[in-house]
Amino acid sequence: MEVFSCIVSKACELGELKDLRAFDGGPAISHLLYADDALILGEWSRGNIENTARLLRVFYICSGLKIKLKKSSLFGIGDVGEEVAIMARTLGCRVGEFPFDYLGIKVGAKTNKSCHWDSVIDTIKRRLASWKANSLSMGGRLTLIKSVLASLPVYYLSLYKAPNKATDQMEKLMRNFLWAGSSEDKKLSWVAWDTVTKSKENGGLGVSRLKDVNFAILAKWAWRFQIQKDSVWRKVVEMVHGGRGRWDFLPLNCRFNGCWNSIVKVLARRSFKGKSSKDIWYWGEEVNDVFSVAAVKLLIQDEVEISREQLMRWESWIPIKINIFIWRAEMDRIPTKATLIRRRIDIQDGSCYLCDFGDEDVMHLFIGCGFSFGVWSAVGRWCNIMPLMAFEFKDVLGYHEQVSGGKWAKKVVRGVVMITCWATWKARNDKVFRGSNPRVVDVVAWIKSWSFLWLKGRSKFSDIVWNEGVLNPMYML
Predict the structure, then answer these.
(1) How far apart are the C-alpha atoms of 291 and 217, rounded to whole Å?
(2) Is 246 within 8 Å of 268 (Cβ atoms)?
(3) Quick check: 55 and 8 in contact, CB under 8 A?
(4) What are the C-alpha distances in Å from 357 to residues 186, 349, 366, 472?
(5) What gap in Å lies between CA 156 and CA 165, rounded to an integer?
(6) How far apart are the first and last CA of the chain?
(7) 195 exposure class (CB count in 10 Å sphere: 0-12, 13-18, 19+)
(8) Which residue in 27, 151, 309, 413 is deepest, having the highest Cβ count within 10 Å?
(9) pLDDT digits (tens, 9 = 90+) for 73-128
(10) Residue 392: closest CA among 314, 324, 329, 313
(11) What pLDDT sits at residue 243?
(12) Is 0.90 surpassed by the pTM of this model?
């Protein structure tokens, strides 16, 4: 494509091909190239079209590479009427119509209308349909949402301000997938989406809100505008919009619609405490600080997020699904009988499944139940710490503070506490759905085996041995 670029540039230099000449000293643009895709721009005239056809022929003779004109399209901008079809026949290509897809982006569409975001929403739906969601744990679904689903619309969000209806539809698909494992099925959403989208430090799951992502990526254009002073796109923006805009460093001509107009208007709704010197703009406290989308998202979170008081800390050496379970349990958002009754689900008997005594809620199931008391007693002896004395679930989450030792001693016990809650919940569900009769000794065996496997496979203690770990999980410290 470098050869093709040289041929086009030479043709413009000789006057054989008339490029787009901007007024007020703006740039002259004849072609744009991306990988093997070419976009040729020029004045609208039969002579220019014919010379373009000759130029493509010369390129084919010189390089042996033939551009398939039948797959190419000709677009006329302005009052050209039926001339487009005539010129397309001259060139041997198709007639292009607005809006059209170019490099995966809708060009010429009114992207403030949600209907033009249907292709993005359909992409998310197709991706969801290809996954076997029923075989995924909640931790697996959360990982896919953060790494795949949330990134699918980023290309569009980097250029256009998404309408609220479109972002709401996309987040609805993510929300249904998180709680139901499907974009269509409807199940109880146990935690509000506003809480889910908070950072982990503020009591959420760290899923980014698409509106915040949209704003953060668009903000990068403001930064690029100040840094890339010699870029072609900046010169085009200055030529079209000129003057000064709502922001003191972004030009805006409200007579012209388009993506730059929407970008400036979106950014004008927020103010940044940026810094400038005589010659340069810089981001952050130091001159060498580099602008990042993540930094903008953090600024937005600091403005809108209210930290939720919590004791739960995410533990890296146990699976995500167990971390999520403890996160929900601390907020009393797991389907115990008491919680289901509060949500107006008909439950005839509210007593505990494991001990048949007392109402089954989070407090009783993990603290007051006789069955769980036996489990905690065995776990305390295994870890060589005092028996659990708890009056609320937060006391359970602070159990590791009784451990004397360094950072990893507390991390190990904190993980064991989470696994103990998970094993108790599993025993409860096995009795409810499988009709099994759980025993304390079996649950303790689960806790020991899971703790050993996950410590060995998910932490730095890959050389621990079962014969020692079954006696004390912290023997290696």
Answers:
(1) 11
(2) yes
(3) yes
(4) 33, 11, 13, 32
(5) 15
(6) 61
(7) middle
(8) 413
(9) 999 887 677 888 888 888 889 998 888 888 888 888 888 888 889 999 999 988 88
(10) 329
(11) 56
(12) no
Task: Write down how long the chain is.
Answer: 477
Reduced to 3 states (helix: H, G, I; strand: E, B; else coil), residue 20 is strand
Cβ atoms of 264 and 246 within 8 Å: the answer is yes
Which three-class secondary structure state does DSSP give residue 139? helix
- Give 256: exposed, middle or buried? Use CB within 10 Å, 0-12, 13-18, 19+: exposed
Query: What is d(CA 423, CA 157) in angstroms, rounded to the nearest whole number?
Result: 42
Pairwise CA distance, residues 238 & 253, whole Å: 10
Q: What is the mean pLDDT of the chain?
A: 87
Residue found by looking up tokens 């050869």 in the block: 3
- CB hemisphere CA count around 340 (13 angstroms): 13
Could you give phi then psi for residue 271, rounded to 5 degrees? -115, 135
H/E stretch holding 304: helix 293-304
In single-letter form, the type of residue at position 97 comes to E
CA distance 392 to 396: 7
Residue 452 neighbours by CB distance under 10 Å: 18
Structure tokens at 455: 């410590």
CA distance 287 to 307: 31
To which H or E segment does residue 244 belong? none
Where are the chain's structural domains?
2-97, 213-304, 320-469
* Tokens describing residue 125: 């739906």
Tokens of 119: 């292709």
Contacts of 460 (CB under 8 A, 6+ apart): none
Q: Would you say 157 and 213 are in contact if contact means Cβ atoms under 8 Å apart?
A: yes
Coil, helix or strand at residue 449: helix
Residue 273 has pLDDT above 70, yes or no: no
In which residue are the tokens 């167990």 written? Answer: 322
Instruction: State residue 169 phi and psi, 5-degree precision.
Output: -65, -45
> Do residues 1 and 33 touch, judged by C-beta distance below 8 A?
yes
Q: What gap in Å lies between CA 463 and CA 449, rounded to an integer?
A: 15
